[in-house]
Design a protein that fits this description.
The protein is α/β, with parallel strands linked by helices and 120 residues long. It is built from 4 helices and 5 strands. The protein has a single domain (4-119), classed as 3-Layer(aba) Sandwich (Hypothetical Protein Ychn, Chain: A), CATH 3.40.1260. The chain has a 5-stranded parallel β-sheet. The two termini are 26 Å apart.
Length: 120
């Protein structure tokens, strides 16, 4: 049975290292057969906006846009918290494809079902 991992990303596109590293690790875990979900919370919710990842890169890592593509191709699930989107005036029609807007209850279910939760 595959391990279930949840990565929580709390930083936004202006902090390239702090958002690139968790997605690099998430994709690496997927490559080993783990089932991975990513939760975007707080400032991390801004990563869900179309175009936000396009120019984010950190030396030695794949660009964030590429990591997103690989993450989704491996079947990764990405969730974002609704209130931080509202606070940043990001409407649901401006989100990248594959991101689901959820609230605390859905995150709680992810946490309860995870073998490990990693917070960045």
């Amino acid at each position: 049975m595959a391990k279930k991992l949840v990565f929580i990303v709390t930083h936004g596109p202006d902090e390239a290292e702090k958002v690139t590293v968790p997605f690099t690790m998430a994709v690496a875990c997927q490559a080993t057969g783990a089932e991975v979900a990513v939760g975007l919370q707080g400032a991390g919710a801004a990563l869900a906006e179309k175009g936000a990842a396009d120019k984010v890169s950190f030396p030695g890592c794949a660009p964030l846009k590429e990591l997103f593509s690989v993450f989704f191709s491996y079947g990764g699930k990405m969730y974002t918290c609704g209130p931080p989107l509202d606070a940043r005036h990001i409407a649901s029609n401006r989100l990248i494809e594959g991101v689901e807007v959820v609230h605390a209850e859905a995150f709680a279910e992810l946490y309860i079902g995870a073998d490990n939760i990693l917070v960045y």
